[in-house]
Amino acid sequence: MIPNHLKSRWAAGRATINGWLSMGSAFVAEIMAEQGYDSLTVDIQHGFLDYTAATGMLQALRASGVTPLVRVPWLEPGIIMKSLDAGAYGVICPMVNSRDQAAALVDAMRYPPEGNRSFGPTRANVSAGPNYAMEANDNVLALAMIETAEALNNVEDICRTPGLDGVYIGPADLALGVSAGRLAPGMDREEAEMVSAIDRIRRAARAAGIRAGIHCGTPEYAARAIDWGFDMVTLSSDARILAAAAASGIDRIRQLTDGVSELDGTTGLSDDGGGY
């Protein structure tokens, strides 16, 4: 089986950079895969896509060598197993609030005797290389999202779940949960209570010998998170990157053409009827 490169990078003491795919497009996934990310996560939970689109996106990632991950919609064994069968090398599971739920995630991801994953890796048997059945348990990553007040209260127990590879912070939901709705959802948290919660999760993971990841909105915050000791940082998403780039370009054009009238025809274009 092709090794999970995230595991080898972490073992070497290197943090990894993850990207986020929320647009149901294999072409967008292919473009993102060529930009230097260590891993890319196909978001079936909140992304504008379904399982069929996700499978095509995983196929598009293969040529680049980037590690493919999937965020499943919920803690439900069927979609967890299908995501792995489609070729995901790790599953990020939302709203894991207890050790029992973390154990259920692990159980769905491991073949016996370590779990109860049903055998049928239709695509993974091809995309992941030979001997998948015997090596998958050691290569696929089980990552539990910590994003509620209940999960924060149980984070030490969650992190000690046998077979769990790591925890992943969803800062938007965590802000809503920790503050009981006082804080608006969002990334790159600076509030003292949020910084404390984020640090508690990181320390719990480190104490349990597992990995910690966090969703970030800017390169600056992602770099800070790596300095804090996070093993994986996610930098924005395809949709946010597209929106930001488009807005930046339009804003710049407005700045450069400020004062040019749209009514008097002073556009700088030739009048030869040409287009593009």
Specify the structural class: alpha/beta
Name the shape in a single word: globular
Portion in helices = 40-55%
Number of strands: 8
How do the strands of the widest beta sheet line up side by side?
1-2-3-4-5-6-7-8
Characterize the main sheet. Answer: 8 strands, parallel, barrel
Distance between the termini: 48 Å
SSE topology string: HEHEHEHEHHHEHHEHHEHEH
Helical region count?
13
Radius of gyration: 21 Å
Mean model confidence by pLDDT: 94
Low-confidence segments, given as residue ranges, are 266-276
Q: State which percent range the strand residues make up.
A: 5-15%
Q: Which tags fit this structure?
A:
single chain, about 280 residues, alpha/beta, 8-stranded parallel barrel
Describe the structure concisely.
With 276 residues, the chain is α/β, with parallel strands linked by helices. It has 13 helices and eight strands. Strands 1-2-3-4-5-6-7-8 form an eight-stranded parallel β-barrel, surrounded by seven helices.
Structural notes for this entry:
The chain is an alpha/beta fold and 276 residues long. Helix content is 44%, strand content 14%. The chain is built from 13 helices and eight strands. An eight-stranded parallel β-barrel has the order 1-2-3-4-5-6-7-8, surrounded by seven helices. Helix 2 (26-33) runs parallel beside helix 3, helix 4 packs parallel to helix 5 and helix 10 (171-178) packs across helix 11 (192-208).
